[in-house]
Amino acid sequence: MAGSHPYFNLPDFTHPSPPSTPPSLPWHQRCQPSDVTKGLLVALLGGGLPAGFVGPLSRMAYQASNLPSLELLICRCLFHLPIALLLKLRGDPLLGPPDIRGRACFHALLNVLSIGCAYSAVQVVPAGNAATVRKGSSTVCSAVLTLCLESQGLSGYDWCGLLGSILGLIIIVGPGLGTLQEGTTGLYTALGYVLAFLGGLALSLGLLVYRSLHFPSCLPTVAFLFGLVGLLGSVPGLFVLQTPVLPSDLLSWSCVGAVGILALVSFTCVSYAVTKAHPALVCAVLHSEVVVALILQYYMLYETVAPSDIMGAGVVLGSIAIITARNLSCEKEGKMEE
């Protein structure tokens, strides 16, 4: 028969052959973290944990040499100025493109106000409580502002973790707010909490402004502008409102250097994270700063940590776990290939 001849044994094109199975790839090549997962992990490890050291170290510098808050802010801004060399090497304008230069400077101003309020607050209230109020207000304001301005809502699991985290903050700071002393001491303590709240509000506004900036070298530009605007505002304010102090002990200089480096790392990581995940979720994950600050408050500053602080810290950690687990997803590379 003709069909038995080798030249007639051709493939049957009327019935397509089943697709070949691709070779098995290692797990790290088959599954890559999603953008939201990357943003939350960067916010947790690079933003919240280093920032938790900033408050206690700032308080140590103040206790060692009465270092004013504006002077500490100036020292921190100095660590941002060398970024100008990176921008010059890349040929980018130091102040950003002319059409969005105003928004970039406004973002820097909001961050300077936020940090200035935070540094002032930790000098009159415990570092853990100041971080608690600042992070709580930034989370609430970020959720409300993002919903109103960007119409970007949250899922039910995200709201559960967000509200749980805020509940943990209330448990931490609630007893302290209920026992404010009368007189000058109580007034300064209340003022410290107000400054911490305003610092959180300015932080949430700054995150939203940063999300609206889209141009090459955005992150190094806003980091340099933070240092520049901070110096221009803090140097005159230091001589008018406070008394400059030149630290003479090694402990103060070590704390100042550590604050500058850790704060720069945290600033960079938070700015990156907010472009990948919802600002309210980023702020909620940054509540890890409160837990770190409470631990350092007890072991480094030898300040009392109440049982409510421990309970609230546990609630915060549980809420962070809920938010992280809810958004912990992978992007299969195979779905992006045709």
Automatic annotation (TrEMBL):
This is SLC35G6 isoform 1. It comes from Pongo abelii. Belongs to the SLC35G solute transporter family. GO terms for cellular component: membrane. Keywords: Membrane, Repeat, Transmembrane, Transmembrane helix. InterPro entries: EamA_dom, EmrE-like. Residues 40-173, 191-324 form the EamA domain. It comes from the Eukaryota. The keyword Nucleotide-binding does not apply. It is found in: Membrane. The chain crosses the membrane at residues 39-57, 159-178, 190-210, 222-245, 251-273, 280-298, 310-328. It is a multi-pass membrane protein.
